[in-house]
Amino acid sequence: MQTNLIISLEEFPEEGRFLSGELDAAIFGIDSAALRSTGPLSYELEVQLFETELMVRGSITAPFELRCDRCLKNFPYVVELDDLAFSYDVKGKLALDVTDDLREEVVLALPSYPKCEISDLECEINDTFGDFRLDKDPQPGVNSATPSGDSVWDALDSLPKK
Ligand SMILES: [Zn+2]
Question: What is the pTM assigned to this prediction?
Answer without folding.
Answer: 0.75
